[in-house]
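REQUEST FORM: STRUCTURE PREDICTION
Request ID: SP-0412
Submitted by: Lab K.M.
Chain count: 1
Length (residues): 73
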Amino acid sequence: MPDLFEFFKENESKLYESPPPKTWEKLEKRLEKRRQKRRRKIRFLQLGLVTLVLLFLLLAAGLVWYFVQREGH
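STATUS: Completed
RESULT:
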């Protein structure tokens, strides 16, 4: 098995190669699509969480009102 240090030393020139500009453009487009999907997903989750909290609070308020009315009779 070749020495790892030798492998890197022989292929050092490849570390400094830069990809063509079109490759960067494609990568940026793909990353932007992912960011947009993630943003929508996070917003949807935030909206769902707020809705769930509001429903829970309404349910709790309704239960408190029900038991207060029941104790009054």
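NOTES: The chain is about 80% helix and 0% strand.
Reviewed by: T.R.
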